[in-house]
Structures are given as C-alpha cells and as structure tokens.
Amino acid sequence: MFLEKLMPSQFVESIHHIDIDQLKRNNIRAVITDLDNTLVEWDRPHATQEVINWLARMHEAGIQVTVVSNNNKERVDRFCAPLNLGFIYAAKKPTNRAFLQAVRQMNVTIAETVVIGDQLFTDVLGGNRLGFHTILVVPVAQTDGFWTRFNRQMERVALNWMERKGMVSWRRKA
Hints:
By secondary structure, this protein is α/β, with parallel strands linked by helices. The protein has helices at about 1-5, 20-25, 50-60, 75-80, 95-105, 120-130, 145-165, and strands at about 10, 30-35, 65-70, 85-90, 115, 135. A 6-stranded parallel β-sheet has the order 1-6-5-2-3-4, with helices on both faces.
C-alpha cells in the first residue's frame, strides 16, 4: 500500500537525537540529509553551531554526509560550501536520481546509508522506494516555504492514518 511507503524506519525529535554510535554498530557509513527544516530552518542561510558540531561528530565517526535538497543551487551552495559539505540541489525528491547519485558520490551502498529528512512525501518516500533506512525528524521551524505547506497538509492526513493504525507513537509538531 502507498501509505506504507511513507512509513519511516525511525522517528526522532531532531538530528541531534540520532544515535551516531548506533549508526556505526549498524555499519552505516553515509548519511543523505535534507537541508531545509531538517538541518536548519528553511530561511536560515548558514549552519548553526549545533549543526556544525553534529557534522563534526559524524566526520569523527567516519560517516560521510551529503545534503540532497529540492532547493536551488544558490541556497544549497550557500549553506554547504562553508562546511565543505557535498550536496545535490534541485533533487526532485522523491525520484530516485539524486539518492542514487549521492551514494555513488560517497562510494557506499544503499545498505550503508541512511536518509534523514522532515517530509514524508519527499525524504521518506524517496528513501523507502530504494530501500534506505529512513529517519523522519520533526521540522526545525514551524513555518515552511510556499510549496512545502501543501505537502504538510497531506502529511497530516498520512500521519493521522498511521496513528490510527498504531504505526506511530508520537506526533510531530504541526
């Protein structure tokens, strides 16, 4: 069923609640992460110190990170370039292309990679379609860009269905 493809492998409050040691124990060597409302607010141009520290912990653990965003080159480059962070912009998630490009660039397999994001219809659906372990985070900001607001309405419908079926145990901030 389509809605089951929207079910993330894991729910966490934020990227800071992801157990990096557990990732290592599970032989995870790479992370594909969304940018807007996953790492920072959609309208924040640069990384916070907390995100910089999280990226440093990933690096220390030997886990590569690539940002895969549906946003434009200017937005994604402005965030990633100062961090020397690999990225793919205009990703057209949930299509496969950018996810597969990211694993090729990092020279890892899907089984060695997790996908982290704040949206069911882009990050989770895209990752699940290819067999990635997917981690859904609560959006960093309570506001969204124009196109994301529509997705959020559809997500509420899907999350309500998942809750009724006993598939989720916590509610996202909405």
